[in-house]
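Morning, I've got a small favour to ask if you have a moment. I've dropped the whole record in just underneath, so have a look.
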Amino acid sequence: MQVNISYERPETGPASGPITVGWFRSSDKNAVLYDPPQRLQSRDMSKTHAKSASRCPAVIHMESRYFVFPCPFDLHLGFARSKDGKPAFVNRAGNASPIRTAKLNEVLVMVNEAEWRYPDRPTIQLVLPYTFIADEPVYVTQLGAFAHYRREPLPGTIFGGRFPINLWPRPLMWAFEWHEPERDIILKRGEPLFYCQFEANGPDRPVQLVEVERTPELENYVEAIGGAVNYVNQTFSLFKAAEALRPERLVVPKGRP
């Protein structure tokens, strides 16, 4: 039996045109530190030659599908254990650190050792306010900043993830698995911290990322699903229930009615 598979999408209707992805900060606290995400671009590469890689349509198309999230802080972290053996991070910058240690503890979390994937690889989480929403099925994938060169590579890997933002608008975290805890983690404000890619029902659809209003409807929906991860192991099992609670429209671009 021959099966015909079509990769075409309709020219009109909800599955046509650009994918509109809304982003917002889950909190206004210190919002000035969290710069808007930017599309990945090879701005500093030479384009003088017609055959330059920076002119290549494949490269341009690939870059257009990733968005860069800059690091909000300068951080220099070491790993240690307390007198009772509990894992902890150390603010290596000490008094020279631009972020106070007390404030650092508000945005940086050492994951409980029992929850590490490997017993010799500590996991830390940097709490971030970036949250996404869409009015059609769209998945976000969070991944490392693979196109950013570091003279001193990070001593581990980022914990990526993928989930549907139309049903599960929750703030992202930068989760890091510390493969070499004997080596320090050094992050610079403004450097790429991670990338995000968005997928809908067609690989050819461009993505339009817009900042949206935190309307009462959006706030209520986010609150309805926000704490579920603390009570349920498999949150993906809640997607049908979340869909039943969801208003039809949640994406309201800033400055538009």
Notes: Residues 216-226 form the longest helix (11 residues). The CA atoms of residues 29 and 100 lie 16 Å apart. Confidence is low (pLDDT under 50) at residues 1-10.
